[in-house]
Write a structure and sequence with these properties.
Elements lengths: L14 H17 L5 H32 L17 H30 L5 E3 L7 H15 L6 E3 L14 E7 L5 E7 L14 E3 L6 E4 H7 L1 H4 L4 E12 L16 H12 L4 E8 L3 H10 L7 E4 L8 H6 L3 H7 L18 H7 L12 H12 L5 E6 L7 H11 L3 E6 L7 H12 L1
Parallel strand pairs: 1-6, 8-9, 10-11
Antiparallel strand pairs: 2-4, 3-4, 3-7, 5-6, 7-8
Helix pairs in contact: 1-2, 1-3, 2-3, 7-14, 12-13
Length: 437
Amino acid sequence: MKDRPQKDKKIYIDRELSWLQFNGRVLEEAEDQATPPLERLRFLSIFMSNLDEFYRVRVGLLCEQMMLGEDGGAEPAPDSVPAGKTAKRIKNIWKAVKAMLPRFDGAYARLMDVLEPFGVCQINCRTEVSKEDRAFLWNLFQHRIAPVMAPLIIKKKSPFPFFENGQLIVAAALRSKGGNDRLGLIPLPLRTGSAPGSIDRVIPLPSEAGKFMLAEDLILMFADKIFHKFHVQEKAVFSIIRNADIDENEGLYDYDTDLRHTVNKIVERRDILAPVKVKYSGEEAPALIAWLAKALYLKKRQIFRYGTPLDFGFLPEMEKKLKKNLREQLCYPPHTPMKNPDIDERGGLIGQILKKDLLLSYPFEDISAMIALLDQAAADERVNAIHITLYRVAHKSRILSALTRAAKNGKSVTCVIELRARFDEENNIDWAGRLQD
C-alpha cells in the first residue's frame, strides 16, 4: 500500500486566527444592509461579547504560557500545525483584531446614521446639545447621578484599585495646581435589578423622542465638575477584560470531591485573575493609557480604542423605549414556534407517547408540549422516575420547576446538569443546589 501524500500544511491556519475569521463573519452580518437595523446592532453586540470571551479564554491561556517561558508547556495547534512561538501567535492575534476594529466602528457609525431618520439618535459628551437638553442633563447629573458616585483619586505610586471584569469606569488624567499628576476614577453605579443607589444606563432626552445618552457619556461630560479642584487633561471610559482560563485540574479536585463546590471555586478565582485587555472610548488619551498600562502590567498592544460603546448591554433597555410599531420596522418579524401536528396538547401526553414515539425539535417547535409532559409526569401516579439531561437553562426555568414538583410528589428525579457551561456556571450551580435540596 502506497504511503499517503503528506498534507500541505499551508492549508491550515492557527486555530485562534480561524476563530477570529469566524467572528469576522458575525461582523459581516452586521454590515449586511439587507439585515434590519436593530438586528445588525445585535450582531455588533455578539461580535464584541465574542471577542471579549476570546480574550478571556484563548488569549488568557497564551499570556499564561508567555509567563511560563517561551512556549513552555504550550499546547500544539490542531491539524499538525506546530504551535510556533507564543509571542508570535499573540502578535498575529493583535494584527487581526486591529484590522477588524475600524470595520466594527464604521458599522456602528453607519447604523446610527440609518436609525436617525427613525428618531433613534445617540449623543455623547462631544455632541452639541440644545440648551434645554443640557439643562436637563445637568439637573439629572446633580440630583440623580452625582449622589451615588464614588470617585477615586490615586497617585502614581498608589495601588491600583480592583475592578470587576467588564465594569465600566470613567477615568481622567488630572493635574493639581501644584503640578502633581493624579488619576481620577469613577466606577459606574449601573442598575442591576431593583438595587437601590444605582442608575439607568440609557438616558432619554426630553427634546426629541428616541434621542438618548449613555450614563458613562454623561459622567464624562461633567468630569471637570467632579474633579473641580484639578485640571482635567484627558478623559475616557474604559473597562478591563480579565483572564478566565482556569483548568479544573489545577489542584482543586485534590481537596474537594463535590463538583458543584469545585466549579463554584473556579468561578470565584476566575473573577480575580489578571487583566489581558483594556478597552477604552473617548478622546485620544496617551498619558491616561500609559498610566493604565503601567498600573495593570499590560503592553500597549493589549489596549484598544473603540469608537462605540464598550458594552452593548444597553440595547434591550434602548429598544424598550422605542414605540412598538417602530421596533417592528427595525427588527425581523418575531419567530413563532410551530405546534407539532402529531401532538394533541388537549389530551394526556403520556397516553399519546405510550401509543407511539414522538420527536420534537427545538426551537423550531413549541416547547410547551415538553413542559406539559413534565407537569403531567410530576402528578401522574404511573410515573415512578424521571431522568433528564440539561445543558443551559433559563434563570426562571419552567422545566426545572416541574422537576422540583415531581420530586416533592415522591418521584425519583435524576437530572444531570452541565456545571461547566462556560460563563453560565453560576446559574447552573444555583439550580443544581436547589434540585439537590
